[in-house]
Amino acid sequence: MLPFTARRLVALAAPLALLAACSGGDAGEPAAEGTDAATTAAGEAPPIIKEREENFEAIGKAFKAIRGQLDADAPDFALIAASATDINTRAQAIPNHFPAGTSTADGFKTEALPAIWEKPEEFKAAAQKLVDESGKLASLAPGGDKAAVAAQAMAMGGACKGCHDKFRQDDEKK
Ligand code: HEC
User: Fold this and answer.
1) What pTM was estimated for this model as a whole?
2) Could you tell me if residue 135 is inside a domain?
3) Which atom of ligand 1 is nearest to the CA of 169?
4) Per-residue pLDDT reduced to its tens digit, 72-118
5) pLDDT for 21-68, tens place per residue?
6) For residue 23, how many other CB atoms are within 10 A of its CB?
7) Is residue 174 part of a domain?
8) How many Å lie between the centroid of ligand 1 and the Cα of residue 14?
9) Does the CB atom of residue 109 touch ligand 1 within 6 A?
10) Domain containing 91 — which CATH number?
11) How many domains does the chain have?
């Protein structure tokens, strides 16, 4: 995996340095905002990729916690509500985590498909769907109706799958 990534980065370095020169930037300078992939291509992946992966990992953990509670005889509905709120906050950040030049086509270790940038409105809507479904789950959970909460958790899971099916590289086929 590493040698492959390194080769891609070397191949990318020349055209990206040219780009940086054209835009008047100094190719040797580190990225000011950390969101412009071009200025960091000579080094490692832009920090935003790590940031969005961590955001999704936390979303994954929160979702797992919710499912774990729903498997229990006496679910902790406060924990479900808190986890759903966490997902809700994190889902709102998703659209800001995908600056141009950070897809699978750009040589970085990422599962973000180019479709994200080809259909930006659709991607935003997919993120909004998770915002909406997690919000519903957060307000429903304190009521303690296990069947209703489980149904809404399923609906929220549908928002994950809906986005992953279109916008995330499926290289594990679980
Ligand atoms: C709007 C689209 C979208 C939604 C909604 C979404 N995801 Fe993702 N998810 C992605 C993309 C794109 C990646 C790949 C990110 C990357 O590799 O840079 C990803 C990656 C992940 C990862 C892997 C993180 C890593 O370490 O690389 C997990 C886990 C995950 N998502 C879980 C979830 C769960 C659980 C939900 C729902 C509660 C969800 N996602 C909702 C688009 C989405």
Assistant:
1) 0.80
2) yes
3) 14
4) 999 999 999 999 999 999 999 999 999 999 999 999 999 999 999 99
5) 333 333 333 444 444 444 444 457 889 999 999 999 999 999 999 999
6) 11
7) no
8) 31
9) no
10) 1.20.120.10
11) 2
